[in-house]
Amino acid sequence: MPTRYLVTSGLPYSNGRLHVGHIAGAYLPADTYVRYLRAAGRDVRFICGSDDNGVAIEISARQQNKTPQEVSTHFNQRQKADFAGLRIDFDVYGGTHQPGYWDIHRALSQDFFKRIYERGFFTKRRTRQLFDPQINRFLPDRYVEGTCYHPDCRKPGAHGDQCSSCGRLIDALLLIEPKSVITGGPTEVRETTHWYLRLNDFEQPLRDWLNTKQGIWRPSVLNFALGQIKQGLPERSMTRDIEWGIPVPLDDPDAAGKVLFVWFDAPIGYVSFTAALCEQRGERREDYQKWWCDPDTSIVHFIGEDNTVFHTLIWPAMLMAEQQHKLPAHVVANNYLNFKIGGGEEEKISKSRTPQESPVWIEEYLKRYDPDALRYYLTAIAPEAARTFFDPAHFIQRNNSELCDVFGNFVNRPLTFVARYFDNKVPDASAATDVDRALVARGAAALEKVGACIEGFRFKAGLEELMSFASACNEYFQIRAPWSSRKTNMADCAASIGTSVHAVHHLAILAAPFMPGAAERIVAMLGLDAPALRWQPPAPPATGRALGQAQILFTKLEGEEL
User: Fold this and answer.
1) How far is CA 494 from the centre of its chain?
2) pLDDT band with cut points at 50, 70 and 90 for residue 34
3) Quick one: which of 138, 327, 513, 546 has the most CB atoms within 10 Å?
4) 12 shares its domain with 71
5) pTM score, two decimals?
């Protein structure tokens, strides 16, 4: 086992609010993983923050008639609040252009660029680039949109860096009928100068490294990355002709007015936010190296489908080129989560939707509903191996029939029984039977199985095992029928209720990574405290110990409400 874990979630652009597609992809599974590791006693730091530089922020600022700083700061804070509302608890949520983070991020990013430059992995060359004559400026890749030129795709809406339909890298000059995102008008081809990372120099090292991940990484991630290498990795420009970003740190007249490509500095944000966190905790900035350079640290990146090429190829190539920081141990990528409502067709979730068109905005959801219900559903339908879709009607059905009628039902029954017939104190379970002991053993086995699923990044399977145990608990309660034995054999009744209270404790531990709020409510009902959620089979409840007040664990939802 590694000594420590450095876990990251992909940095969201600070130009819009969050929807369920974002959460299901890079953030909820990462939080579940981190909560499990901590419950299991591992040393973890959980890193994220907003991606504030580059074209996306410039475009949003232009559209809103604001400065890029105003836009990025506004959405950095809104996103931070959304994550907190969903109980996604980062150790640090920084921002690549936010106060308190910008100076560290700029310095580390420029140092990173210079190390690669000094080792000879950049090629400076004059190149042709698309230009918008209406505003008299060169267009970075994300400012260009056209039809994908890959023969098996040919979908419209491809940007100049990547096609959102097929996911492959794009050469903007090869786009079919390219247009300016800013003006919507046609583009021209003119010459400029940029510095290109020679990705082709790293094809074999990347292939060798990726092959060591066979049987460890998800096949979809590994096959995609190896497939890209098979096609050949082109040189990639790591500088841009825009104003908002990190200045290129070269004493070269051609570097004047240019900034680092946002996808060069964004992953370095993981490093700079870790350094900032060290300072925030009274450590030295340089102490971040314990997390990024020490072989005893396991670095795990959680991302969405659209970031696969950057985290499995470009970022590792950058790390190989600069030679100071570790390569990631895991890159965990989820596919897209689409949207479906009213029996209609699946649609891609888009930031451009209004709240009236799509009830999946995190900010709107949190005004009305329990975050645990959404965490449960998004894990249950997690797009781990293929694209899935969010269906409001399906969400309501699973909340009511599974969380309320299975999980919540079992928690409620023995605890209210204790309050009613045992003075709200744990009854004596010394008359336990083989059936009772079998349920406790089933709970211990569930902890082992769910833990293995989470460590293998199979969160959906882990949740299914949790619910399987909850169902077994309900079946046990029906078989033992304490409402009947209370009238004929009080010792037997006490044993079944004491065993049920013990099983409820197992459920709290199992639920903690997935639904932390529900787990904490159960712990309060059991009259325990936070250490009761350590990832290990709990000791039997002490006879005579007072419980807390029983309450309804989950609330049923109505379709009209949602």
Assistant:
1) 44
2) very high
3) 513
4) yes
5) 0.91
Are 96 and 53 in contact by the 8 Å Cβ rule? The answer is: yes
Residues 234 and 285 occupy one common structural domain: no
Long-range pairs of 518-522 with CB within 8 A, sequence gap ≥ 24 = 518/372, 518/407, 518/553, 518/554, 521/551, 521/553, 522/411, 522/553
Indicate whether 102 and 132 sit together in one domain: no
Verify that 463 and 360 share a domain, yes or no: no
pLDDT of residue 486: 96
Is 80 exceeded by the pLDDT of residue 1?
Answer: no
| Separation of alpha carbons 276 and 269, rounded Å | 10
- The span from the CA of 52 to the CA of 98, in Å, is 8
- What CA–CA distance (Å, rounded) separates 209 from 312? 10
Domain that holds residue 446: 407-533
Q: Domain containing 345 — which CATH number?
A: 3.40.50.620
Residue 102, H or E segment: helix 102-118
3-state SS of 183-235 is CCCECEEEEEEEEEECHHHHHHHHHHHHHCCCCCCCHHHHHHHHHHHHHCCCC
DSSP 387-407: -EEE-HHHHHHHIIIIIIIII
What does the CA dihedral 259, 260, 265, 266 come to, rounded to 10 degrees?
A: 70
Same-domain check for residues 64 and 179: no
